[in-house]
Amino acid sequence: MKVAELMNSPLRSVSSGKSVLHASALMAEHRIGSLAVMDNGRIVGIITSRDVRAAHPNRIVADAMTPDPIVVAADCFAWEALSVMENGNIERLIVMDVGQAIGMVTREAIVSHLAEWKDSMTQMYRSPYIHAIGEERLHKRLPFQLLFLDLNRFGEVNKRYGHPVGDDMIRGYAQKLKALFGDDDYVCRYAGDEFAAITTRTDDDVRKIIDCLSNPISVGPASLTASVGWLNDSTEPEFYRLSFRELVSKASLMSSRAKSG
Amino acid sequence: MNAKTNYSRKALLSLKISEFEMPPMQDLLIIGRKAPIGPEAVRRMAEALSPEQFSLIRMDHPKIEAVLVRNSLLDLMDEQHLVRIVMEEAEKLISETTVLRSELRIAISVQREVDMS
Q: Are residues A133 and A205 part of one domain?
């Protein structure tokens, strides 16, 4: 899910010397909540309906706008843009493509669309997220480590403690996974009791993570271990020739073999 | 009787002409936070009417957003010192929706004693 798919386009703009009243009329005409402020083809700010309400209508846009807006590339992932917004505590980003401002994306639009990609039980992303990242990295031939985690004997946990407790344990395990991986890693709940991760960590770091996951992790009334399938461009000669879906299948089979072995 | 015969419309024009004072903002403008004209508009106006003769100083004040000052005043007195004096007087008068204009003269009085021996 790229920013370009979620942005408002075409980009509506106003010059900084126009009145706030004029900007307000433009927003009403186009039924939008914000305008880019452009002087001589250069983006100098953003003015929103909130800015308009707070300023005297006779003021010029330059005196009501937020200057120096943050921009984001059109091919940036939605979650990366959201992270920029959360770090800067901002609601809107100008979307750029080849040096041109082509649209504006709001935090509301991103959050609303990303909700479709989120697993409501664990608040982790679901499998389309990891597929989007994996496919992008394969397309750009950027190396990465793919880990596929399958919880061991989770069916027995459900039978012994019941499904509601099993769900709690999945939630607890997801929290521990998030803590184990960092902000630069991508982790998702792939399905049921399976998780997948993409990381650019070194082989040694990945081994440490796998060791940690192979040992019992205490979650609620029981401890859980996982079998992990691990692939990268060193271990899989066809890495960049395979689709991400095929890589996931291979990693999944590796985790199954690790489980039975 | 025809009412139209007594009907007339007249316009009375009154003209007062005086010289346009340059610059109209005199020496200082003190801009309220919600004034109809904001700091950037004031800066652009000053720059258009009297290029390079005024400086805009933004303020961290609940009612006053910025002060426009004639540069020649800043040559005579330290900016912080001048702004502090202006603020002390202006904040008693200004509301956040107004712009105050001020004329400011600085007269320097010097007295020296020299040794005649």
A: yes
